[in-house]
Each structure stands twice: as C-alpha cells, then as structure tokens.
Amino acid sequence: MSQKQDKATTERHSKTLRELLKRPENKVCSDCKRNDPRWASWNLGVFLCIRCSGIHRSMGTHISKVKSVDLDVWTVEQMNSIQKWGNKRANAYWEAHLKPGHIPPDQ
Ligand SMILES: [Zn+2]
C-alpha cells in the first residue's frame, strides 16, 4: 500500500510525539482526563490512555484510527493530523458539537 518509511523519519516522528505528550493538554487522556496517554487516535487528533484506546478501537477504524505512541510507526500523514489537532483543539471541537445539556460520561 505505502512505501516503507525510512528509519530517520520514523525516529523524528517518535521524537515529535514524545514532545507533543509533554504539552499540558496532552498529559491526560482526552476522554477520561486521567492516566498517562500512550495511545492516540490520529484521525481525531487526540491522545488516549490504554483503556480509552480500546473503546476507540471498538468503534471501528472508520470512526477512530488508534495507534500506539511508543510501538507503532507513524506516517507523515498521521503526524500532520495529530499535530493539527491535539487534545485541546479536538476537545473544543467535539464539545462544541455536542448537544446542549449533554454530559460526557465520567468513566
Ligand atoms: Zn482514558
């Protein structure tokens, strides 16, 4: 499907991801606001804990495309998407589009 990515690019991407995770808005899981996010949905542009990443996976890849920050190889396209969004902007977007009175599930 796609060409194999060279090692230098992959390493640069993982360094960028580690730096993204140091930002205050990305230090907690986008969904449960807890834990240490080591996973991300690159199409939604959010960082997730392992538990919430499982929930995102179960929604299907047409909704959420989940990858491990530590274990997976990130492509240029995926990096562009996660950098464009990030937890803060993605949350603002999704919360703005929720119905009035909707309370996001706590757990
Ligand atoms: Zn979570």
UniProtKB/TrEMBL annotation:
It holds the Pfam family ArfGap. PROSITE patterns: ARFGAP. One of its GO terms (molecular function) is GTPase activator activity. GO terms for cellular component: cytoplasm. InterPro entries: ARF_GTPase-activating, ARFGAP/RecO, ArfGAP_dom, ArfGAP_dom_sf. Keywords: GTPase activation, Metal-binding, Zinc, Zinc-finger. Residues 14-107 form the Arf-GAP domain. This is Arf-GAP domain-containing protein.
